[in-house]
Design goal:
The protein is an alpha/beta fold and 405 residues long. It has helices spanning 18-32, 77-81, 88-110, 120-134, 145-148, 157-166, 175-184, 231-241, 261-270, 288-292, 310-317, 330-333, 348-360, 362-378, 381-396, and strands at residues 4-9, 36-45, 55-60, 63-71, 114-118, 137-142, 169-172, 192-194, 217-225, 247-255, 277-279, 297-300, 321-325, 341-343. It has two domains: 4-198 and 382-396, 3-Layer(aba) Sandwich (Rossmann fold), CATH 3.40.50.2000; 217-379, Glycogen Phosphorylase B (Rossmann fold, 3-Layer(aba) Sandwich), CATH 3.40.50.2000.
């Protein structure tokens, strides 16, 4: 299939974030199998720039990446500069218009067959507009907050709805997100498919062992930490167990934003866990396996808007015991008491009970680790590629409507 595709995203490495890592993985997966792949990475910038100075284009392996700086003032900046500060709606209007101009520029220059958006807003909204204007097929990929959060955002909900309506095909990283979009926002069941993330076992090999002061069992989580990840419920559960078990809390990663740090630190102080806790800070993706090897148990107590956590899949590949909430794609991957344990979202009691089980039953601990590794071995890049190609073959078979400017 000789399709020229453009992945449109608001995150792309070296930016951190699950959406960016997923876009990078899929872009390189498609390019390595022969598709012509470009990426347009739309990045917020606090100062306005002339368009011809706002972007760079670099060849990164087999993918041509266009990074565009789009004007979006920092919160409060406009108010500090002027008494007549623009409203949030006015800021979004300019932001949307400049993103449209950028993507239209690259589409007219390179003539994409498919615009593939990662995240419904802004990427899916902008890709849908450009695709409808110029006859390109549009794939919109639901990743998490775009449905789980923006469904409740009065300013962004119209953009999300329009991105779903304008898409020729919708993919999702979790069936629960597809169902929320289909039942509560826009009927998409006839053009939607769930594609779970993959894990590349060949690249997931620990190279070094970080020198950390770990004592007892190592329990914690990995990724980017914020309220929706539900770590407070893990802390509450561990507070109940600290008299019975010796453990270290390891948080392999960093907080999504700096303002997320203090609430978590306050919870750790409140539950008497600060002296047991290590937060590593940002970890490069190629080094995550070095840290995952240190764990005995990883807990993913997400509350909502969860996708398919890559750090969970990587930990499973390393035979780690997983405890996960019934949120996002976690229950699509974890089978309770087979390859991990499932708990109710927002239940510290369930987490404490699950931790008590795995810490006291050696046979269960071993069985869950082996089951996790078997599941991860099935979630290969080849499987993910086949599923993406089924989508591309579907949209590629449809006639294009070429519209001249």
């Amino acid at each position: 299939m000789n399709l020229k595709t453009c992945l449109v995203t608001g995150q792309y490495p070296p930016q951190v974030g699950g959406v960016g890592h997923s876009a990078h993985r899929v872009a390189n997966l498609l390019a390595s199998r022969g598709l012509q792949v470009h990426v347009v990475a739309l990045q917020k910038h606090v100062a306005p720039l002339p368009f011809d100075e706002s972007y760079t284009s670099t060849q990164e392996g087999k993918v041509l990446v266009h990074r565009v700086k789009v004007y979006h003032p920092a919160p409060g900046a406009e108010a500090a500069a002027s008494d007549a500060a623009p409203s949030e709606a006015e800021i979004l209007t300019r932001y949307n218009r400049e993103m449209f101009q950028a993507l239209e520029h690259f589409h007219l220059r390179y003539g994409y067959d498919v615009l593939h958006a990662f995240f419904l807003y802004p990427a899916g909204f902008i890709a849908g507009l450009v695709g409808r204007m110029h006859g390109a097929q549009v794939i919109a990929s639901i990743r998490g907050n775009d449905v789980g959060k923006y469904a409740f955002d009065p300013l962004r909900l119209p953009f999300v709805r329009l991105s779903l309506e304008n898409a020729d095909y919708v993919t999702s990283v979790a069936t629960s997100l597809t169902e929320l979009a289909d039942r509560a926002m826009v009927p998409i069941g006839h053009k939607a498919k769930t594609i779970l993330n993959s894990v590349d076992l060949a690249r997931l090999r620990p190279q070094n062992k970080p020198d950390l002061p770990l004592k007892g069992k190592v329990i914690g989580s990995a990724g980017l930490f914020r309220y929706k990840k539900g770590l407070v419920y893990l802390f509450k559960a561990l507070a109940q167990l600290q008299e019975q078990h010796d453990f270290t809390i390891l948080l392999a990663g960093d907080f999504f934003k700096e303002e997320d740090r203090e609430p978590h630190m306050q919870w750790l102080r409140e539950y008497g866990l600060m002296d047991r806790t290590i937060v590593t800070g940002k970890i490069a993706p190629q080094r995550m396996a070095d840290y995952l090897q240190l764990f005995d148990v990883l807990v993913f107590p997400s509350l909502f808007s969860e996708g398919c956590p890559l750090s969970m899949l990587e930990a499973m590949a390393l035979k780690k015991v997983i405890i996960g909430s019934r949120a996002g794609a976690i229950p699509e991957v974890i089978r309770d008491h087979e390859n991990g344990l499932l708990v109710r979202a927002g239940s510290s009691e369930d987490i404490a009970r699950a931790l008590g089980e795995v810490l006291s039953e050696a046979a269960l601990f071993a069985r869950l680790g082996n089951g996790a590794a078997q599941t991860a071995a099935e979630m290969t890049p080849e499987r993910e590629f086949r599923e993406w190609m089924a989508v591309y073959e579907t949209v590629g078979a449809r006639p294009h409507v070429h519209r001249e400017r």
